[in-house]
Design goal:
Elements (H helix, E strand, L loop, with lengths): L4 E11 L12 E12 L2 E7 H4 L8 E12 L1 E7 L13 H14 L4 H17 L2 E7 L4 H13 L3 E5 L1 E2 L12 H15 L6 E6 L7 H13 L4 E6 L3 H10 L6 H7 L7 E5 L5 H10 L2 E4 L1 H6 L7 H6 L3 E4 L11 H13 L7 H8 L1 H6 L17 E4 L5 H7 L5 H11 L5 E6 L2 E5 L1
Helix pairs in contact: 3-4, 4-5, 5-6, 12-13, 12-16, 15-16
The structure holds guanine and zinc ion.
Zinc ion binds next to strand 5.
């Protein structure tokens, strides 16, 4: 039987490596009149339409996206699906915000029906923003993980998630304990990890809400499952960092707490990473841990400024995270735009192609899934987004004054939102279309 083949004609752009602060041209490819050939949900070829179209058989269905821009599906390296409905809640920094907004919202997930309803809505929101993969926090309830995995599996998405571990310094009704955290997470790993495109992340909320006993259990579980992910928060807020120093006086730094308990390694993803020193960056880099840069959250919660230059100089894998509900948008376009401003405030550059990298291939590298997704190399999974540069009347006008793909992409990062996501494809199949 011959493979099912399809081709998509549009302007196409993707990254081959990190374009850096100077936008190295060899780090990305751009086809003004490009063709993406997909067979059985995987990339078969990418090139100029003029070269590739004559090589295709008559049986290949060609979808023409005239004046549209195709790029790899966006990857969100850090987001909380149970916080979908509290996005944009007024006025607090992290620890007060958790108590006032996040924990009450998460307590509602004691009801599995609520979890299923929100999980389904959340996945729809990802897709309409062009996001095809995400690393996702659940709540402490094991069925919160079931709900998000079921919603992602129904759309064949590559998604990584986990039940939260938290057994202290949080409301009673949201607590597990060291033993149940270990047992429930283990059962969820057996049920979901490598089930289709899904992956499991051991998810201690942060060192503040896990006892030493629970962190030990999480480390034991991680050691028993070297290929599952670890997902937590690190050094987001000064008040939080002070509390960690008070609770773990024997540890050199916040990162050292995770390292001590066996939670710093490849496939460990740390959201925020704002207050780190050179020694922290060296140990995160050596261990293969990754950082999720969450600019909308860091600004909204008044947390601080992520130093991408220092992180990348230390060779740390970095991707963008929306961190909804602390973050204010599920759009990686808007997130990239805020990342640009955060770096600008520190006298650093974020050219459009590096922003694209952070939302696609860089994120795939941070999650150790770049053998599957992140760009359009042959054999990778066909997850992609079709952007409409004229998705709003303002961008339609703005596009008329751009000369290069870099200019056009930068203006879109700055101005575009879900109105500009014309279609989202997962494994070669359309899962969202305007
Ligand atoms: N640190 C611990 N929990 C959370 C959370 O839910 N959101 C954010 N932004 N930071 C956290
Ligand atoms: Zn978060």
């Amino acid at each position: 039987m011959t493979a099912m083949r399809q081709a998509f004609q549009a302007t196409i752009v993707h990254c081959l490596e990190d374009p850096g602060e100077h936008s190295t041209p060899s780090a990305y490819e751009h086809f003004e009149d490009g063709l993406l050939v997909v067979a059985d949900g995987h990339i078969e070829a990418l090139g100029d339409a003029g070269d590739l179209l004559p090589t295709l058989g008559d049986d290949v269905l060609v979808t023409e996206y005239r004046d549209k821009l195709i790029m790899p599906g966006f990857i969100d390296c850090h987001v909380h699906y149970p916080q979908l409905d509290i996005v944009g809640s007024y006025g607090e920094q992290l620890l007060d915000w958790l108590n006032r907004y996040a924990y009450p919202a998460e307590a509602q997930f004691a009801d599995p029906n609520h979890a299923r309803e929100v999980a389904s809505a959340f996945v729809e929101q990802l897709l309409l923003n062009g996001t095809t993969t995400a690393l996702v926090f659940g709540t402490v309830h094991p069925h919160s993980a079931d709900a998000i995995f079921e919603a992602a599996a129904a759309r064949d998405m590559r998604l990584i998630a986990g039940k939260v571990l938290m057994d202290c310094h949080c409301p009673e009704e949201l607590r597990d304990d060291a033993e149940s955290a270990y047992r429930d997470s283990k059962a969820l790993i057996e049920k979901w990890h490598n089930h289709g495109r899904l992956g499991y992340a051991i998810t201690p909320r942060f060192a503040l809400t896990s006892s030493a006993e629970q962190l030990t259990a999480a480390g034991r579980l991680a050691a028993e499952h070297p290929d599952v992910w670890i997902h937590t928060h690190l050094a987001e807020n000064r008040g939080e960092v002070d509390e960690i120093e008070r609770l773990f006086p024997a540890r050199r730094s916040y990162l050292d707490v995770y390292d001590y308990y066996g939670l710093l390694r490849r496939r460990a993803v740390f959201a925020h990473c704002l207050y780190m020193d050179d020694a922290d960056r060296a140990s995160m880099s050596a261990a293969g841990g990754a950082a999720a840069f969450c600019p909308t959250s860091n600004l909204f919660l008044g947390s601080g400024l992520f130093d991408l230059s220092a992180m990348r100089a230390a060779n740390i894998r970095c991707g963008l995270g929306t961190d909804v509900g602390g973050g204010t948008s599920l759009s990686l376009l808007k997130t990239a735009s805020e990342a640009y401003k955060v770096l600008h405030l520190q006298d650093h550059a974020l050219p459009a192609m590096r922003a694209l990298y952070l939302a696609t291939l860089g994120a795939a590298e941070a999650l150790y899934v770049d053998e599957h997704i992140g760009n359009f190399l042959p054999g990778k999974e066909a997850d992609f987004v079709v952007l409409d540069p004229a998705g709003s009347s303002l961008t339609a006008r703005r596009m008329a004054t751009t000369d290069t793909i870099e200019e056009a992409l930068f203006a879109l990062l700055t101005l575009a939102d879900d109105r500009h996501v014309a279609a989202t494809y997962v494994s070669g199949r359309v899962q969202h279309a305007l």
